[in-house]
Amino acid sequence: PATLVIIAHEMQPLIGLDAPEYVVSGVPFTASVTVDNTTTSILSVSMDMVAPHGWRVERIGKGSATIKPSERAVCAFRITPPTNASIERFRLENVLTAIARFKAYDGNGWKDIGELKCEQGVGIVPAVDLLVRYKGELLNPWQELSPPILRWGWGTDVFVKQVPTLPVDFD
């Protein structure tokens, strides 16, 4: 379903953050900050990226731009997580923050109008990561592929589902 929103007054600029959902520790990746000028003013924007402690962030290209109404500015960053970063699949611990600071031209000069932030969690996965599927269902490795002692359950009521050895596909 589509939603149509009609706003009778000027909107603020929009900021976006585009980064991979999952990365490998020690392997650089590219993330970008986008700013859409949805106002009726010419904007000067400076874009920055903040990563968790120990991560390296390098700006690729210019970090500032002047954007006319209905235009977009993009700034890319090369980000490298530390080589000893822990596996974290839930994307809660490692948050990237895109920051855009704005100035508007009012005919007489530039005036500061504020900043916007956007956040995205990034998961850390092993260099070789696989998901095992059996008959189209994802097998949870802690319950299906590990020894019975590590499976869920209490005492003697641990249910161990037997998985036959059949071809599986890998993602």
Primary descriptors:
171 residues, 3% helix, mainly beta, four-stranded antiparallel β-sheet
Write up this protein:
The chain is mainly beta. Helix content is 3%, strand content 44%. The chain has one helix and 13 strands, in the order E-E-E-E-E-E-E-E-E-E-E-E-H-E. The strands form four sheets. Strands 1-3-7-5 form a four-stranded antiparallel β-sheet, with no helix packed on it. Strand 11 and strand 12 form a beta hairpin. It starts with 13 loop residues before the first strand and ends with a strand.
Given helix and strand content, the structural type is mainly beta
Helical proportion, percent range: under 10%
Q: How much β-strand is present in the residues?
A: 35-45%
H and E string: EEEEEEEEEEEEHE
Distance between the termini: 30 Å
Main sheet characteristics:
4 strands, antiparallel
Helix run count? 1
Give the C-alpha Rg: 23 Å
Poorly predicted runs of 5 or more residues: 142-160
Mean pLDDT: 81
Q: How would the global form be characterised?
A: elongated
Count of beta strands: 13
Strand order of the largest sheet: 1-3-7-5
What order do the helices and strands come in, and which of them pair?
Blueprint: E1 14-18, E2 22-24, E3 29-36, E4 43-50, E5 56-60, E6 64-67, E7 72-80, E8 95-105, E9 110-121, E10 123-125, E11 132-134, E12 137-138, H1 141-145, E13 169-170
Parallel strand pairs: 2-10
Antiparallel strand pairs: 1-3, 3-7, 4-6, 4-8, 5-7, 8-9, 11-12, 11-13
